[in-house]
Amino acid sequence: MSAYSRFFSDRHASLEAYTPGEQPRDMAYIKLNTNESPYPPSPGVAAAVAREAGRLQLYSDPTCRDLNAKAAHVLGVGEDQILMTNGSDEILNFIFMAFGDSRHPFAFPTLTYGFYPVFARLNNIPYREIPMGTDLSIDPADYRGLGMHIVIANPNAPTGLYLDVSQIEQIVATNRDSVVVVDEAYIDFGGESCLPLLKAYDNLLITRTFSKSYSLAGARLGFGIGHPSLIADLNTIKYSTNPYNINRMTMAAGIAALEENDYYREKCRLVAGERERTKAALRGLGFTVTDSAANFLFAAHPELDGEELYLALRRRGILVRHFSTPAIRNYNRITVGTATQMDALLDAVKDYMKEVSVL
Ligand code: PMP
Predict the structure, then answer these.
(1) Is the pTM above the cut of 0.85?
(2) 33 lines ligand 1 (CB under 6 A)
(3) What separation in Å is there between the alpha carbon of 284 and the centre of ligand 1?
């Protein structure tokens, strides 16, 4: 039975919407299912947001001038190379809207961020999913000279696997007539950004978010960085949809967060340390765990059903993310939290393994 009203456009009849991670309210869970930071924003953020709350009768600055200037300074790029959006999901949608059409399809890996195919279908853009290795790796050779717009999450989600800058450069350099989008949502947890490549390539677009490494998932702030001409195209889409896409409080939060960069760098270091400790502990329990460079782990156990484990952890008050996609149905994606949260996760995993006589 269709869930649609009789008025829903035929254009969207086959659209399968993105499913965000669950947010159940029945008990207080340790939430390791949506790759949020376990740490609150830095102290200056709340004060800045409170100040702007008293000015909400006024529209926000559609040019995001102060925030752009701050971000441009931190990243060492021009202000005309940045576009701020309502989460990086918004800039990703803008990218599909701006550059895709029936003659300009997109390509991305088979296993990656689930929103890419949704944006392609929403905007009626054909796309090709490029197969990955059995170890879930992305082979840059598969993208060399592809002649399609390309989106690569680096590190990739949900695997956490990372391509180095020279591998990304191979893809960008051999597709000069296509836009190559590198989604760096998780770059601050250990990978090296391909930002320096922007000097040489006008077809490279990088997307970033404040949701993970800047503890601002609830503020909804992301951005794109690229050649001024690409940013101008994306601005045309922005001004054709929602010119005030960044509200006053979020803009203030972003500026304050960038002013307290050291706080976040330290938190990313803590998360990366916990990731490595938890990875080693899970491997010690017999799990296969990818070498994630992100703030999450991707793990499967040869003797455990992935969904059963997800449900067992849920019963024990711990939420992780399980995907039913056949190739990865034995895996779970586990957001890295504090040491206390990771200890609770490991205890719950061991408890379940004992229950089913695997430990
Ligand atoms: N890209 C990737 C790879 C992600 O995992 C996410 C988070 N779900 C996003 C982009 C979007 O994050 P946000 O809209 O919160 O910036």
Answers:
(1) yes
(2) no
(3) 30
